[in-house]
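2024-03-11 09:14:02 DEBUG pipeline.ingest accepted 1 chain
2024-03-11 09:14:02 DEBUG pipeline.ingest length=739
2024-03-11 09:14:03 DEBUG pipeline.predict start
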Amino acid sequence: MSEMFDAVDALVASRAPLPPAEERKRLRVAHGLTLDDVAGALKVRRATVSAWESPKKPTEPRGPEREAYARLLKQLAELYPAPVPATFTAAAAPAEARPLSTGEASEAAAMTATENTQTPVPAPVAAAPAAAPRPASTTRSTSTSRRPGARKAAPAGTPAGGTDPRFENGPLAVVDVDDDGKVLAYCTGGLVLDVPAKSLPSLVDWTLKEAKLGAPKLSGPGKDADPLLVLTEAALERYGLPATLTEEERIAGRIPEGHKVIKQLTRAQWQLTKRGFGPWARIYRPAQGSERACVQLCIPSWNALDTRHWGAAGQLAPAELARLLGVYASRVMTPRGSTAVTGLELMTALHPATRASEPDATGKRHSEHNPGSLGKDPVDCAPCEAPDGHPLLKDLPRFHVRGPAEKLFEEAYDWARPMTDAECTLRHLVGIDVNMAFAAGANGLNVGLGAPTHVTNPVFDPKLPGSWLVDLSHVDLSRVKVGKEWVELDGSLLPSPFTPKGERPEGPAWYATPTVAYAVELGYEVRPLEAWVRRENGRYLDGWYNRLRDAYLATMADLGVDADLSPEDFLTAMDGYKSRDPELAIVVSAIKATVKGGLGKLRERPRGEGWRPGEPWRALSRPTWRPDIRAAVISRTRINLHRKIVKHAAFTGQYPIAILSDCVVYAANGPSPLDFLPYREGKPLPGGFKLGVNPGLVKHEGTQDVLWGEEVRERFNAPELNLARYIKDGTVTDADNGE
């Protein structure tokens, strides 16, 4: 009978009741436990615990793990009781009586904690990602809080020990108007503030004087981040702004200078930057000493949040949008414009152009150059680095086309080849994609900080950043060095590492330092004819890479994809990871776009404004207009990929069929990357492709049938159609034109 009772007890324990996923996370964070802490105690993987807490589709533990997990949560619940929801006023019916509007639901979410609660509580609208624990507090929020005693949770990425008291309400707020006509500011962590401002100038005043919004500087000599206000369509209407831009205004990127709201700002002695009042407007007064007087506006309905990078973020409810942008702001930085603009601004925020000097004889400090930065003044690029139309090229004949010996052309791969007979007998085409490839290319890269110096017949120095005119046509991929050993390969099945199209160079051409260094690595001598080198140099992008890498990895971990997963578990975790929390998936997309866009801004081209070839354009006035740095990163990224391809070919005899930027397609007998990547007892080929979430490692991009590849190439009569462009979902809408 006792055995029967034990069996019954075990059966009951195996179905031990568990609180909702949001409550599970709240209890863990309240006690300062990490996912790893819980996983270690229960002897499960970190990703398993993360999945138990997923706010969208939580998984349920079973067996002894469930009993232990339930016991843990029960004890934590005794230490940290769930807050009692605040009561509604007479004007608002209870939730049971009628459905809440979006605004009311968000407001109710912000009211879920009371004065006596000792632990910050995430808003139930969308659970905030796990952040470093911070000490419990009973301090009330500001007097402008939507409800007395409304509390906020620490946003993702908040350092242990609390935030800067000047910015205690977070980096940003989404301003909306509820059904009763009240203006509300939805902050990170679920806090909702009453906004008393009746006009846009007074909204700016309120933001700077009362809202306690903003973020501390990222670097010692840097500046604090200005507060960001995101205006919904209802808020735009309240403050006299159009809900959408006309076609003319959209093209101009701003509303007219004579608009009544701009006149209001002018009368209140507020100024706009040169880009005017557009989707990302900056409203400021000249700084008085160290006092900030600047507010950034983001207007989603004016297309401030590009759907290519921010997905459906602009359509989210205010509280959800505040959460999404808050995660990005805390992990990357407060957005300063598009993801491209923010990527560039992050470089400067981490390496400000100037710093305060040591005190002089009178004790006064002065502004001086900050070592390791690009300085405050722009420098001219080398003529070979200048894009077409640059003032350095104004004396060229009008329709002159510069060849490889005149123009540095370091770009990402766009290469493909016909399949061999042997490859056609295989069943699948499998695409793998390098995670954060360009970020990884920037990591540890030595780049020029100052102006270039021209040298003739130089001895190549792989440690010296610059552009080199050298003939690499003698490099034969059929016989190259891999490490210290010479290996024989089928060079006809490999792209050249020296050109984006994979074509073997035919004579002297300009290359960035990493490309020339790779020719030496492959075992070949190089003799540059001339070069533009930068003797002042450093690893300018290291801090930028580290911050974006950490932001990416932290957000992917919140989505259940950890850096320490086995190859099989990694592929499983990546399957459908975006659906676990679509908002955090948008943050991942934005982080990736910040990398690519920021690097692209280093060589920003003219953007209309009546520009003509040979004339300077606005971007040239920035010290961060540095096409040489962009070229070096792209060069290193392409070389990193080629090195892995050669290593893989030398070890397995397998060659890529197509490459597009950071995606490589191989023919294989099975549909998984594990069907052709040479793992041995879970260990990857040293120096080859490795599955994982870290930048530089690879993930599964997509799989199609070999017959699909042959069919689309035949359909478009294009034997070298780049299948890497379509491997993800197999949809081919038009012939590949290389664009």
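2024-03-11 09:14:41 DEBUG pipeline.report Residues 85-162, 735-739 have pLDDT under 50 and may be disordered.
2024-03-11 09:14:41 DEBUG pipeline.predict end
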